[in-house]
Amino acid sequence: MPTIVVTGTQWGDEGKGKVVDYLAQKADTVVRYQGGSNAGHTVVVAGEEYKLRLLPSGVIHKNTVNVIANGVVVDPEVMIQEMDALIARGIDVSGIRLSNRAHVVLPYHRMLDGLSDEARGSGKIGTTKRGIGPCYMDKARRIGIRVCDLIDTDEFRKRLKENLELKNKELSLYGAEPLDYEKVLAEYEAYAERLRPHVVDTIALLNREIAANKKILFEGAQATMLDIDYGTYPYVTASHPVSGGVPVGAGVAPRKIDKVIGIVKAYCTRVGEGPFPTEQLNEIGDKLREAGHEFGTVTGRPRRTGWLDAPVVRYAGELSGLDYMAITRLDILDGFDEIKMCVDYKYKGEILKEIPASLKVLAEVEPVYETFEGWKTDISGIRSYEDLPANAKKYLERMAEVVGVPVGIVSVGPNRDETIIIASDLF
Ligand code: IMP
Questions:
Q1: What is the SS3 assignment for the chain?
Q2: pLDDT digits (tens, 9 = 90+) for 42-68
Q3: Which pTM value belongs to this model?
């Protein structure tokens, strides 16, 4: 039963796209199970960079089935733009399958995302403004429009009319202009025609593939600390990036998940608001941002930067049942004389055993750091674990010890081949 889940362990942007792309070389199917076009996955193949927001990272591979499962919220405009951009670069997108149960992002979701977050003033989340939260809100309110409704002309007309009556009232509360029914209808009817050939029951498809022993890779977007239940609520996204999101978001039973890999950036970043205990608001943070080109793929925002927070990764390990950590961007630390790792949190003089639920407490924890000597050498050409500098191995070995999960993959550069595979039981 070769099914692997790849999930982020920090606040997103760990480099999941790169690891997914590497594993996708051997996968039959790659599946997105949550989130939407708020994700930003960068994949570099043969020096060519591909930026994906909604499509699974396996789309760059020939003969791979790429599934957007029911747990995803789909902006048809973004999906079509991404498909067209890939077609223009000679990539075959005919293997993309879209769940008939996925919810559709409409223009009012995007508008309300921006307007409602701004209205929170200093309490704003700093969302990506892609309409993700408002679309999941409508799903929970039982007024969402699903892909099966979008491609049913009569149903879509009826549902859009009902929803626009309500949404135009909501928009007026923020002083925004109402949306025109005919205009939105024409736009979305065109999307429906374009997407129709890709729409299937992905639950049946995936379960059939599992029964046939196909290799399936589930690609998480965002990460554990942005999970709506487990993250730094309310500074979170609206879905479940943890591995538990796979059964719900793709219709695949938990017992059918074989392995879970947690992606761990060798240091830490976050975009948007919310507590970040190891943040470095100093020249170390600037150096990490510069060396790592830490600017958002979707929004272009400079990312907040800091040292690795091992308690957060340990928490992700427990929540997602990680078999391995895949360490990404280790090469970004090449130029540092000294590297720090937070191994525990202290609060009011006591070591905390758990990640605090209260953001007030989390904002006040004191990271307990261990200091490591840097390796001060370019590691991007190294292809085996043994050949890594001793100081880099010390850093990784201590990380595995503190987190309690072995290192299975180390990424030393953005290209597909700049990868060290340690685990021998992946696909
Ligand atoms: P939303 O997902 O657009 O609702 O944004 C909610 C929070 O999640 C904000 O802090 C975003 O910056 C963050 N977020 C959403 N997607 C990503 C991602 O792919 N990487 C990092 N942060 C993200």
A1: CCEEEEEECCCCCCCHHHHHHHHHCCCCEEEECCECCCCCEEEEECCEEEEECCCCHHHHCCCCEEEECCCEEECHHHHHHHHHHHHHCCCCCCCEEEECCCEECCHHHHHHHHHHHHHCHHHCCCCCCCCHHHHHHHHHCCCCCEHHHHCCHHHHHHHHHHHHHHHHHHHHHCCCCCCCHHHHHHHHHHHHHHHHHHEECHHHHHHHHHHCCCCEEEECCCCHHHCCCCCCCCCCCCCCCCCCHHHHHHCCCHHHCCEEEEEEECCEEECCCCCCCCECCCHHHHHHHHHCCCECCCCCCECEEECEEHHHHHHHHHHHCCCEEEEECHHHHCCCCEEEEEEEEEECCEEECCCCCCHHHHHHCEEEEEEEECCCCCCCCCCCHHHCCHHHHHHHHHHHHHHCCCEEEEECCCECCCEEECCCCCC
A2: 887 778 888 899 999 889 888 899 999
A3: 0.96
